[in-house]
Amino acid sequence: PMLRRATAHFALLTGGRYRRLLTDEEQDPPVLRALREDGTACPMDQLSEGARDQLYLALRVAALEMQAEAAEPLPFVADDLLASFDEARARAALELLAGLGRQVQVILFTHHAHVAELAAGLPGAAVLRMQATARIAEHALPVG
């Protein structure tokens, strides 16, 4: 069940570039592969950094969904999770997280303004902008 959920999430996050996740049980230990839209299987070590990040997000969301159905939901807190995502994939990830937010509390920190703007356009999303203030202290050093 988790692999089915993760497959759907991964397909969404990659814009359909990867259609399915498969486990190669003949390997010891078993290996996870992503089936491309052209039908070829791609081992995880051949995915781009962004696609690997999307796969990990798909797996984490699937696990959290299953856990929320079985027990008290755990919150999902992430920091700059979408740094390696292009705009289309970041939007898909935010939509996935908004869906997850119907089951668990989702908190996403980012310092990327475009991610906050994308999130602000989602129904039910609350975007809090925090201003960092820097204090510079000047110290006089004795000369001589």
How much is the average pLDDT?
88
Tally of contiguous helical segments: 4
The shape is: globular
Number of strands: 5
Q: How can the largest sheet be summarized?
A: 3 strands, antiparallel
Low-confidence stretches: none
Strand order of the largest sheet: 1-2-3
Q: Radius of gyration from the CA trace?
A: 20 Å
Our measurement of the CA-to-CA distance between the termini, rounded to an integer number of angstroms, reads 74 Å
In percent terms, what proportion of residues is strand?
Answer: 15-25%
Q: Which structural category fits the helices and strands?
A: alpha+beta
Helical residue percent band = 25-40%
Elements, N to C (H/E): HEEEHEHEH
Could you explain the architecture of this structure?
The chain is an alpha+beta fold and 144 residues long. Helices cover 39% and strands 17% of the residues. It has helices spanning 2-13, 49-70, 87-100, 113-120, and strands spanning 18-24, 31-36, 41-43, 76-79, 106-109. The strands form 2 sheets. It has a 3-stranded antiparallel sheet, covered by helices on one side. Strand 2 and strand 3 (41-43) form a beta hairpin. Helix 1 crosses helix 2 (49-70) and helix 2 (49-70) runs parallel beside helix 3. The chain starts with a helix and ends in a 24-residue tail after the last helix.
